[in-house]
Amino acid sequence: MDTGEVLASLGVEGAAAAAHALSLPAEAYGNDAQLEVMWAMKAYNHAEVYFNLISSVDPKFLKLTKTDDVIYSKFREDFPDFNIKILDPELLKSAEAKEKWRPFCNHFEGLVEDFNYGTLLRLDCEKDYTEENTIFATRIQFFAIEIARNREGYNDAVHNASVKAKQQKKEQS
Fold this sequence. Notes:
By secondary structure, this protein is mostly helical. The chain has helices spanning 3-23, 33-56, 68-78, 90-93, 95-107, 139-151, 156-172, and strands at 118-122, 134-138. The protein has a single domain, classed as Orthogonal Bundle (yst0336 like fold). The protein contains seven helices and two strands. Helix 1 (3-23) packs across helix 2 (33-56) and helix 3 crosses helix 6. The longest helix is centred in the first third of the chain and has 24 residues, at 33-56. InterPro entries: PBDC1-like_dom_sf (IPR023139), PBDC1_metazoa/fungi (IPR008476), Polysacc_synth_dom (IPR021148). Residues 35-159 form the Polysaccharide biosynthesis domain.
């Protein structure tokens, strides 16, 4: 069942309740499987919208937040040699990596809405979101890496492949 069907099955009141539930702090919940599914759906929807966006619009011209310039500058200041083309999960998730990322992420508290919410991030920027190519990251990590990928031309491969596919489809019609 796709996420649209799941949300439609909730009805207006159920969808409103789900939206409210997702806005509450994590401390308000224990390990609720239904809530985890809602978070996963929200993260998946965000990933799908973002991938469609970089497929349709030249990524160099995208502005993901009001603070893109600040995020990009701070990211490259704190992580000057970080490989954004193909991410190493250990550089995001290991204990040592978390210690390095924590001050960067906390720098954006109050500057970037929901900076520490979970989101999906592609490991290889030239590929779509798949189970093998996706990692869970904080929203600010997503923004930092994707803004850098857009500005440094790494997401051009996705955009160019989409343009080429549309061109071929048009020629076949």
